[in-house]
Amino acid sequence: TASRKLDVSPDTDTLSRRVADMVVEHSDDAIRARGAFNVAVSGGSLPSMLAKYLVQPDVADKVQWDKWNLFFADERCVPLDDDESNYKLVKSALLDRISIPDAQVFPIDPALSPEACAAEYQARMLKAETTGSGFVAPSGSGVVFDLVLLGMGPDGHTASLFPGHKLLEEHTKLVAHIEDSPKPPPSRITLTFPVLNAARCVAFLAAGSGKQEMMVRIHQQKDSTLPAQCVQPENGTLIWYMDSAAAEKLPAN
Ligand code: 6PG
Question: ipTM for the complex?
Answer without folding.
Answer: 0.97
